[in-house]
Amino acid sequence: MKLGEYRVALPWYPWLDPIAPFVNWVPTKRGTKQNLEWYDAYNAIKHDRENNFADAKLIYALQSVVGCFVMLCAQYGWDFAKKGPAAEDAFFRLIQAPQWDPSEIYVPPSEAAPRERPYPFCAYSDEAGQAFQYEAGHHTDLKPAGVPI
């Protein structure tokens, strides 16, 4: 996921340097070699607050929250973050993300227009436990179970 390549600025706190919460996260053949001070402090405090409370630092809290934001950007793409002038007022501004070689992309881009596909499923939504089928893309078309969609 190249998490170490993400950098996030905090426009509301311009005196802080951009944060790269996973910069020390190193992939290895056996998984990852983790050297994340903010995560190590969190884990130590979680398991023994009285003896490790001195490890609690505001910068670690910021790094962990930025880490959550980075994970969302890694999962849902650059479009998840605001860009351009809109990003200037956002709490987080993604300023660097990894560049992917086409050979590293799991699903190559398609020139074909996406087509809607019905995926019916049942959900119990009324007080009597009546099952309804729902057709993806048509959220207003609720029909009792057993009725063809």
Write up what this structure looks like.
There is one protein chain. Helices cover 23% and strands 19% of the residues. It contains three helices and seven strands; from the N terminus they run E-E-E-H-H-H-E-E-E-E. The strands form three sheets. Strands 5-6-7 form a three-stranded antiparallel β-sheet, with no helix packed on it. A two-stranded antiparallel ribbon has the order 1-4. A hairpin with a 2-residue loop joins strand 2 and strand 3. The longest helix has 19 residues, at 58-76.
Structural class: alpha+beta
What proportion of the residues form beta strands (DSSP E)? 15-25%
User: What pattern of helices and strands is seen along the backbone?
Assistant: EEEHHHEEEE
Roughly how many Å is the radius of gyration?
22 Å
**How widely separated are the two ends?**
40 Å
- Net shape: globular
Strand order of the largest sheet: 5-6-7
Which percent bin holds the helix content?
Answer: 10-25%
Q: Ranges with pLDDT <50 over ≥5 residues?
A: 121-125, 131-145
Mean pLDDT: 76
Largest sheet: 3 strands, antiparallel
Query: What's the count of strands?
Result: 7
Count of helix runs: 3
Topology:
Elements: E1 7-9, E2 26-28, E3 31-33, H1 37-47, H2 49-52, H3 58-76, E4 93-96, E5 121-124, E6 131-135, E7 138-144
Antiparallel strand pairs: 1-4, 2-3, 5-6, 6-7
Helix pairs in contact: 1-3
Would you summarize the structure shown here?
By secondary structure, the protein is an alpha+beta fold. The chain has helices spanning 37-47, 49-52, 58-76, and strands at 7-9, 26-28, 31-33, 93-96, 121-124, 131-135, 138-144.
